[in-house]
Design goal:
Blueprint (H helix, E strand, L loop, with lengths): L14 E3 H8 L3 H10 L11 E3 H15 L10
Antiparallel strand pairs: 1-2
Helix pairs in contact: 1-2
């Protein structure tokens, strides 16, 4: 299921815990853990994991960009 996230809610220079991210983006905390496995950068290597706002924004932008597909001429979605 694709979802559009409000990137404006994420402060660029603030650190967030997984719980804060899940509440802010309205996703399950397990989703954030999966994102970490997929390449979301964390500040700390021990719990509680913290993520900087600019890393989170960049990760979500790349994720949404990868989902887009270019249509050929005379195609529609």
């Amino acid at each position: 299921m694709s979802k559009n996230y409000n990137l404006r809610a994420i402060k660029y220079r603030e650190s967030y815990s997984f719980r804060q991210i899940s509440e802010m983006l309205d996703v399950h905390p397990r989703t954030i853990q999966e994102w970490r496995k997929e390449g979301l950068k964390t500040i700390s290597t021990e719990k509680p994991f913290l993520v900087m706002g600019y890393d989170l924004k960049e990760f979500l932008k790349v994720r949404s960009k990868d989902r887009k597909t270019k249509l050929k001429d005379n195609e529609f979605y």
